[in-house]
């Protein structure tokens, strides 16, 4: 927290006019930091609803958060809570005890792209993914492997389209993921659906096939909620970078 405040302070000091006092500047730094903290809380608790952009004066805050040990720690806590619940599940052994994962910013992270192009940016994103691989979110990779050892069938459910299957598999394998039960992408009939409708609909199809969806992990509320099917427990990873409805 202190290094974030310090960065805000150093930046705003450069903007101080002769009419501004150091006390006024410090007050503004405190106000901006607290606002951005509260804004991020509203995002993670879904109180912000359908938001589109990071507030301009929170771009640096989001960068500091996402590249800090704080984000790593928050992700580890989510994984630890997930694993605690998973260990309480009675695995039947019939292969139908499932855990569903989103992929982008849940299993793999595109943080290197945002560090290069700026937080809040989407410029040349698809071109970047064609030339680069995304690393694993380490807390999720550890959880993924633990769940497999416990006997869960892993289902990967992503908003990427079917033509991206080969690239998606390459991303997953590069990041260290393997042996999933199923990888579900958008087909032609799914185009135009919101993420919430698409993903909850696919979960309903899994349940109709006899799967019991005990856990669901994602970085967006649209990964977890829905009109059709919600897991026994859902776990949201932190993501103040963008929102998907």
Provide an overview of this structure.
- This protein has 245 residues and is an alpha/beta fold.
- The protein has two domains: 2-48; 68-236, Rossmann fold (3-Layer(aba) Sandwich), CATH 3.40.50.
- 48% of the residues lie in helices and 12% in strands.
- The chain has helices at 2-13, 22-44, 59-66, 69-86, 111-117, 125-131, 138-150, 165-175, 195-208, 221-224; strands spanning 97-101, 153-161, 182-186, 212-218, 233-236.
- Strand 4 (212-218), helix 10 (221-224) and strand 5 form a beta-alpha-beta unit.
Strand order of the largest sheet: 3-2-1-4-5
Task: Kindly provide the name of the CATH class of the largest domain.
Answer: Alpha Beta
CATH homologous superfamily identity of the largest domain: HAD superfamily/HAD-like
Shape: globular
Low-confidence stretches: 2-6, 8-17
- Average pLDDT value? 90
**Measured distance between first and last alpha carbons:** 30 Å
CATH topology of the largest domain, by name, is Rossmann fold
CATH structural architecture of the largest domain = 3-Layer(aba) Sandwich
How many domains make up the 3D coordinates?
2
Helix-strand topology string: HHHHEHHHEHEHEHE
